[in-house]
Amino acid sequence: MFENLTDKLDRSLKLLKGQGRITELNVAETLKEVRKALLDADVNFKIAKEFTNTVKEKALGQDVLIAVKPGELMVKIVHQELVNLMGGQTVDVNLKGNPAVILIAGLQGSGKTTFSGKFSNFLKTKRGKQPLLVAGDVYRPAAIEQLKVLGQQIGIPVYSEDGSKNPVQIAQNAVKEAKLRGYDVVIIDTAGRLAVDEEMMNEISNIKKAVNPHEILFVVDSMTGQDAVNTAKEFNDRLNFDGVVLTKLDGDTRGGAALSIRSVVNKPIKFVGTGEKMDALDVFHPDRMASRILGMGDVLSLVEKAQEQFDEEEARKLQKKIAKNKFNFDDFLSQIQQIKKMGNLKDLASMIPGVGKAIKDMDIDDNAFKGIEAIIQSMTPKEREEPEVLNGSRKNRIASGSGTSIQEVNRLIKQFDETRKMMRMMSAGKGLGKNVPGAGTAVAKKGKKKRR
């Protein structure tokens, strides 16, 4: 997501690199390109103009320190203004009710039903809640069945009423059912509707009055660009919703909706959908998104994704094995499987500062680990447990069994050996500096220089 915007902003900000100081002329030239990049990304014209005017005001009002290069200062100012544009801070969803009632609204095809499933899964796995999904879309063929299939996948019950065409009554009955059975969150999926359809807009207003939701979330397909922003305004005028959900941010989106919607409706973006899987839902952090747009990475999100797959007890066992140099191919395979659970490989790599730009034109296949897994799974339990026994004939058998070449098998064994050595060094707390060839000499020379 935002690849084109990131690329264009990067080129715009390069205009100031190498400049001795910030002047009105070079700032104007840079910001002209920044505004063009924002408009190309489908950001509202008025917002793009206000954004660049604010950046210009702040840039020309700065006393530039000698240590700070003009280009770096401009990136810092643009970053801060992007954060402000997208809301400034993360806003959580309100779950204080008993049960908390969440009403989901939006246009047809915006991804409400899929989001309802993802959101209930998020609440169950990350917030320890017991949600009840409510099938309130009585108009779209198979909408109720779709929600039931999603609920079955993630182990969450779905409330529906066969034959009923009254979503207001369904919502009221579902809340009663939740109280009776002890569910602490009720998520009401509703039919898609156009803001100009008076009858449908009255219907969702009636659902709101009937169940008095603690939170109304408006779901927007980010690929619809500026139209999504206009629709959000019309829905907000009727429903006064609490937050926005941007879906399909993994698609070929220009990102303008994410940058414009907060300013237009003055409501926070709370979640973003980043894929088709039920765990592909992220809390929206304006500061992290701004960093990603500017190609600065997002280490915090990467760490959080890693922690979600982190098992403390398993980690302790692994630490002991590494310390005793007993780390084996079974452990190696387990680590790979944990990385795979974290999500799309290209997205993960782009969270590392500096890597996003380097890999933007690369096609990183999510099946990149397939060959490695095939090789390890073609080993006998003894070979996985004791890699030292792998001789020529065993390697030939493994290559044949995994459909790979002897060179690929040798390459994996070499990578495994290097990983094991590095893990052992880190486990011993030696630090990598001393163990890098030539590093000790470099440190010694540095020390001599100081003594002179």
Description:
It is a single chain. The chain is α/β, with parallel strands linked by helices and 452 residues long. It has three domains: 3-85, Four Helix Bundle (Hemerythrin (Met), subunit A) (Up-down Bundle); 100-296, Rossmann fold; 308-435, Signal recognition particle, SRP54 subunit, M-domain (434 Repressor (Amino-terminal Domain)). 57% of the residues lie in helices and 9% in strands. It has 22 helices and eight strands. α9 (226-239) packs parallel to α10 (256-265). Residues 430-452 have low confidence and may be disordered. α9 links the parallel β5 (215-221) and β6 (243-247). It has an eight-stranded mixed sheet with strand order 3-2-4-1-5-6-7-8, with helices on both faces. It has helices at 3-14, 24-40, 45-60, 70-85, 112-126, 143-154, 167-181, 198-211, 226-239, 256-265, 286-293, 299-308, 312-323, 329-341, 345-350, 355-359, 370-377, 381-385, 392-402, 406-427, 432-435, 439-451, and strands at 100-106, 131-136, 158-159, 185-190, 215-221, 243-247, 269-273, 281-283.
